[in-house]
């Protein structure tokens, strides 16, 4: 997702826009830009990097203008650089546009324009849409708003666009479908933003533009129309949120916002790739290398922290479905060992930030020995994505909270699709199993939404145990890595010493820790290990341990023996990790809040560990 800002009115536009962009950097921050219509005409200033770097680069420039648009980018098409940054200028030079969203049919539109001898400076879908609009505008002679309406009827995907026309410096034209657009109503001025943060210090009267609406915004007039060119009555809302709350979407912390984004981010990760009805998985980075992946004698997964836990889940899934041996390595250890890499080995590097130093160096070490590198990364254009020979982005959007949550479930979603795609190619699973798991994966966003609807129950449990000094997290099979992830979340958010273990391992020592003060969290959803984990729960209860269980809906057995139970929807055991991790994320969050911890910025931690 990206942040967009616009202004038209009696004030200087630039200061309002640049400040508004800073307030929206949580929406994306890999490159940024501003377009203004000044005495000299349409001026565009843009560059890779954060808003502050753009602002520093413009010191001393005359930026006098009463109309402008600005953009802070989260790259989806084309890596972050000066050319791909928004705003884009049209081929004819008189239009400028910013865009938040994805134009899914941009390639087709681009080929039509190339036949008309259009050329392009950037790799973005945005520039294609802008030139498509300009082509209609020039060749039909219709008003710009009409050209935009005609163009958008041809577009599939999601968008918010703001368009400036050098020949009409009194108007901003905006349109939305699928991405947010807010218009602030001032006295003889209007503000535009992806949310209300750019305008909240000037006005609390806002209009939330609806899908398929076009806004013609002048200093003293706001006209809303639908794609059928019918005027819509702007519905003015009075904001009661303060600035800080709006950046977090009304949530108290980014971490909670990102936990609650997961139905959407998992859906976004699957969109355009998973087609359960057609029984198809389409991932260009995988499809282009499917032979190397199906012939790989071994997968070596390297990652750190939460990403390493995703790799551990992938080990179980890939070995089960693809029958290819998998090793999961801490990147920080792999890089200092003298690992044996054999011909055909495929290294899967998993990283949210794409900048983790240990993982980067580990990749280089594996590459030197001839391994094929597949990168699973969230930040487009990041270092790991660039050194990988192929890969898949997780499309989770910017993850601001230091504790990784939505990126983790997005990583799992990508890894599940990769495992299924390879298994299909190798015919290592039956068509029936393949289709069953596609539908299971497709149902995950709704099941996660169900878990989130019951979040208050977790807050109650968290408050009960928030003052504990230690905790154990236990699971078996696919849920064992989830136990580790739950322990890591609790450690890094609440500073409670928590350990994750295979439940069966308790009898080899850790059970000595159990007493009436120790909360033991069991990930005990229905699977092939269920009866065994019930026995483990009884072993803990026999020693007066406090049992918190994540169980499958309707499981009264667990309810009869645990001190606290949180139910999750039933799921195929392979897909269970995507769902059973969510209560553990919430448990850690609420315990951290109960202990007064800074859950978005925990002590001693950084969002991206770019040091050794
Ligand atoms: C996870 O909650 C932590 N913030 C940390 O373990 C993180 O997963 C690890 O540093 C790896 O980061 P990466 O995914 O960006 O490579």
Give structural notes.
By secondary structure, the chain is α/β, with parallel strands linked by helices. Strands 3-2-4-1-10-9-11-15 form an eight-stranded antiparallel β-sheet, with helices on one face. Strands 5-6-7-8-12-13-14 form a seven-stranded antiparallel β-sheet, with helices on one face. The radius of gyration is 26 Å and the shape is globular. The two termini are 30 Å apart. The model has no long low-confidence stretch (mean pLDDT 95). It binds 2-deoxy-2-amino glucitol-6-phosphate. 2-deoxy-2-amino glucitol-6-phosphate binds at residues 304-307, 351-353, 356, 359, 402-404, 492, 608-609.
Quickly give the structural class. Answer: alpha/beta
Are any ligands bound, and if so which?
A: 2-deoxy-2-amino glucitol-6-phosphate
Largest sheet: 8 strands, antiparallel
Q: Could you give the count of β-strands?
A: 27
Return residue spans where pLDDT drops below 50 for at least 5 consecutive residues. none
The percent range for strand residues is 15-25%
Shape: globular
Distance between the termini: 30 Å
Strand order of the largest sheet: 3-2-4-1-10-9-11-15
Mean pLDDT: 95
Evaluate the radius of gyration. Answer: 26 Å
Q: What is the number of helices?
A: 22
Estimate the helix proportion, in percent. Answer: 25-40%
